[in-house]
Amino acid sequence: MLLNSTRGFLWSDVETRTLLKIWGEQDIQTALDGNFRNSHVYRDVARRLAEMGFERTPEQCRVRIKSLKRQFVLAKEGNLRNNGQHHKICKFYDAMERILSSRSQIDPQELLDSGVVGDETMDGTEEEEEEADPPRDQYLEDTGECSYPQTQVKMEYPAVVIPVTVENSTTVKQTSNSHSAGSPSSSRPKRPKKRHAGLPLESMMERFLEQSAEAEQNFYHMEDQRLDAEDRRREAEHSRELHTLQVLGQMFSSIATRNPVPVATATTAVPLARNTTDPSAPTLAANHVTRGYWSHLPVGSPQSHAEWASFHSRQQSNPVIDRSFSIGSAAHRGMDDILPLVKNIVPPLISKKHKGQDGRIGIVGGCQEYTGAPYFAAITALKVGADLSHVFCTKDAATVIKSYSPELIVHPVLDSPNAVEEIEKWLPRLHSLVVGPGLGRDEMLLKNTKEVIEKSKSRDIPVVIDADGLWLVAQQPSVIQGYNKGILTPNYMEFTRLYEAMHHEPLDSSDHQRSAMELSVALGNVTIVLKGEEDLITDGNKVIWCQQKGSGRRCGGQGDLLSGALGVLAHWAYTSSANMNKSINPSVVAAFGACSLTRQCNTQAFHKYGRATVTSDMIQEISSAFKKLFDS
Ligand SMILES: NC(=O)C1=CN([C@@H]2O[C@H](COP(=O)(O)OP(=O)(O)OC[C@H]3O[C@@H](n4cnc5c(N)ncnc54)[C@H](OP(=O)(O)O)[C@@H]3O)[C@@H](O)[C@H]2O)[C@@H](O)CC1
Ligand SMILES: Nc1ncnc2c1ncn2[C@@H]1O[C@H](COP(=O)(O)OP(=O)(O)OP(=O)(O)O)[C@@H](O)[C@H]1O
Q: Whose CA is nearest to atom 37 of ligand 1?
């Protein structure tokens, strides 16, 4: 994982400091000291740098060190210490001084010369090849940095040789000549004539250093501006994407409100409120339900059972609604419309995150009889993208669940005398709770579970309830009633049980949409996910259908996979809800994502194993199903 970006050839300060720290290490210095062939040493430097998060080649490390040494000597020999100018010329002066002072004296002539130089040469032969190609800009190659705006400085740079003992320009010239006579670089083209030949060396030197520092400042300033502009461009792009999604959401709402409902006097979309005159009466319009679209009830919608009956019959005779939202074409369009919303809640995988940020999910369930269900839910949560998955189960079940997977954190507390306190300790660290897989129906376990749900509600944690958790809700609806982050995932059997517990009348099995909306409203608009041949999702205001292709294979545990996935997606959806259109319910988006994923896993596993497909095979498909649905 890279700690810092190493854009192009540029070295950031933090990267340079890390390089210096490595280069200054005792064993590196010893290996370099007097050793002509040192490519292996720079290979080691590059490797250690990579361990610190910065990817550079050994050659890049070598030229950077060489450049730093050159800057250091220029600053040192420019006698700029007293007026503090040395830091302008060599930002890392102090570090360099510390390292170099612990080594044998370095000949500054060597460091400034662009020819073969002590430990900065990566095996002599390579350096000779470099020298054989004179027309290239030696300064740029040596520093490994981008060109400065004031190239004039660079062009003059190699020509200025600064011998320690020289006192005037004539001597410099002689030194320079004598050097080039014997060096391999004598074949270089003639350098441009020095414009400052008449100036005393010291003032020329000072001027050069000032120009050089100024050029460097300019360069970094420009680079800062460029990066700022890039950040702004990226932000603008992101807001454009969000805006598009919001417009899409509004489109769904307005499509729904444009239905020609005869009694409607206004077409403004309003969220369905609970009936204020008769709290027990469900406020629904079943045929107002959309397949794959969000739907709001228009003002003037029925507010009681009697009104509903009349509304329902009008809707039945309304062909426009049937055509607009018929399954045939809307099925595909529904996926296209809602999947982008799910994709939008998936957090990006960026290196700045720490463990836990993408989700710490708790599963309450697992008893002597059922150890598979909590395992399926918990491992699914991890595979969908949560960072940590906790299982709170009975003592009996814990060892078994642990033995299935070392990835899970298993707490054998659910049947302990202080179960609620034990679990409550973890709640501040959890992002969502999945209650019910493999819970069983033991009185004491259900009582503990009920209290844990209450504590989670007070912490505003999304709570997904499945399996035996739904049995608990059927016995004591108040446990989840009115909690808007509550999501119930019944199969048909569980749904019937819930409906009949709430309405004290048999379920009308001919109209699932209406019944599901009624149940949601009766439970205070919790989100209901009625699983089946098609999955129906409603929060009492809207209904959407998930018609992702599945298979005919109905092995046990598929519902646990769904609830585990939903735990993670609910956390992601609520985390990104600030960026969502307000008419979109995060629970519904999360539910649609979890249903699509479960069904896609089923299809893929069935394709491989047919009738032999088991839930573990579906779990193996999570990665590729997720990519196919949400990463494309
Ligand atoms: N490997 C494990 O550890 C697993 C453990 N699990 C855990 O088991 C616990 C009990 O859960 P559960 O669903 O078996 O119990 P329950 O609600 O009494 O239903 C039982 C009866 O309801 C019926 N029925 C079911 N679906 C229906 C439908 N769609 N449509 C119509 N009818 C339907 C059906 O009746 P039948 O057809 O047999 O007459 C069935 O026999 C729970 O904690 C769960 O998490 C499971 O997750 C699986 C993997
Ligand atoms: N007839 C069907 N055709 C296609 N997919 C289905 C069908 N019935 C259920 N599913 C899918 O299977 C998944 C699990 O639903 P199921 O009804 O099996 O849950 P469950 O009974 O609670 O499961 P569990 O065995 O975990 O208790 C859901 O994603 C649902 O969409």
A: 493
